[in-house]
Design a protein that fits this description.
Strand order of the largest sheet: 1-9-10-8-7-2-3-6
Distance between the termini: 28 Å
Strand content: 15-25%
CATH topology: Rossmann fold
Number of domains: 1
Largest sheet: 8 strands, mixed
Number of helices: 11
Radius of gyration: 19 Å
Structural class: alpha/beta
Shape: globular
CATH class: Alpha Beta
CATH superfamily: Vaccinia Virus protein VP39
Order of helices and strands: EHHHHEHEEEEEHEHHEHEHH
Oligomer: single chain
CATH architecture: 3-Layer(aba) Sandwich
């Protein structure tokens, strides 16, 4: 896509061990619920990749920042140490509790992102972090991104991290007769906590274009593609099957998208932008906002945090 530019993964001066210490060895971590502590520890490798990509993207992330649905501000110690220009940082989650780090009170607002309007004025933020949320959306992804556009300043960035539906390792799953999804468990009582749709790099950038963003800076962490997977990709390219570069097929998608247009969910957009057929059903009867949403943010499901923290 014309609006997509790849950046290559490379090593950084901060090791994964150092990153883990910055994230976990502090009073904020010590006061977290145990289940959230376990979630952070079990996902250090993936969280480190997000941090690495923020650094090597060489993008000027400026604050104030809004961290939406990414785990109750778990990255705040990293933002303060390495991305101080992004502060202050606000948090938006399905439900909230008091957050503090080194004397900094971190404001948190309740936000069911496919239903609610954020309690902020237009163009309030210089960066929005939307890590490991896109794959959990179930109702109306365009609405969410339009609402994030509304509160972001023009020329600033929305950062997204999400599993890559076109990852090379999924090819092996298909060839061995397995589902290529990274998560297959049905969660009847916690439908927002499972992966409801996973995305390709092209789809993430098309979503951004629909919602007023562009100049997508992308990596898929292609350095994690194994030698055997590389051989399969090379074979597919030789046979004329593969039409994408190898760096399209890494396990994750990290995207920094620049806001180019002022947009919001209240705008009367053309149908191909508000309800694009590559994402929503072509049947008009279904392309509309529901009257009843699955989760009521004022009365969260029992065990919501526990289920959320078990999900990668």
């Amino acid at each position: 896509m014309d609006s997509m530019k790849y950046f290559r993964c490379r090593n950084i001066d901060v090791s994964e061990t150092q990153f883990s210490a910055y994230l976990c060895e502090n009073d904020m971590f010590a006061t977290r619920p145990k289940i959230l502590q376990n979630y952070i520890k079990n996902n250090i490798n993936r969280l480190y990749r997000i941090f690495r990509n923020m650094l090597i993207s060489e993008t000027d992330f400026r604050g104030p920042a809004l961290d939406v649905g990414s785990g109750w501000g778990i990255f705040y110690p990293i933002y303060k140490r390495f991305f101080n220009a992004m502060l202050p940082c606000h948090v938006a989650e399905l439900f909230c509790y008091d957050l503090e780090y080194e004397g900094d009170a971190i404001p948190c607002v309740t936000f069911e992102c496919e239903k609610d309007e954020l309690p902020y004025k237009d163009s309030s933020f210089g960066a929005i972090l939307f890590f490991d949320v896109l794959e959990h959306l179930i109702v109306d992804p365009v609405y969410v991104i339009l609402e994030l556009n509304r509160v972001l300043r023009k020329g600033e960035h929305l950062l997204i991290n999400t599993p890559n539906a076109s990852a090379a390792y999924r090819i092996f799953k298909i060839l061995s007769g397995q589902s290529p999804a990274t998560e297959n468990e049905i969660r009847p009582s916690s439908i927002y906590q499972r992966h409801n749709r996973e995305w390709t790099p092209d789809e993430v950038c098309r979503l951004m274009e629909c919602c007023g963003f562009g100049n997508c800076l992308i990596t898929t962490n292609e350095d994690m593609i194994s030698p055997v997977e590389t051989e399969i990709l090379c074979f597919a390219k030789q046979k004329g099957i593969l039409r994408k570069p190898e760096n399209y097929f890494g396990p994750d998608i990290f995207c920094a998208a620049e806001k180019l247009e002022d947009m919001s969910p209240k705008l009367d957009l053309p149908k191909d932008r508000r309800w694009p057929e590559w994402l929503y059903t072509s049947l008009d009867i279904y392309r509309k906002r529901p009257e009843i949403f699955p989760i009521n943010a004022e009365n969260p499901e029992i065990g919501l945090m526990e289920n959320r923290c078990e999900t990668s």
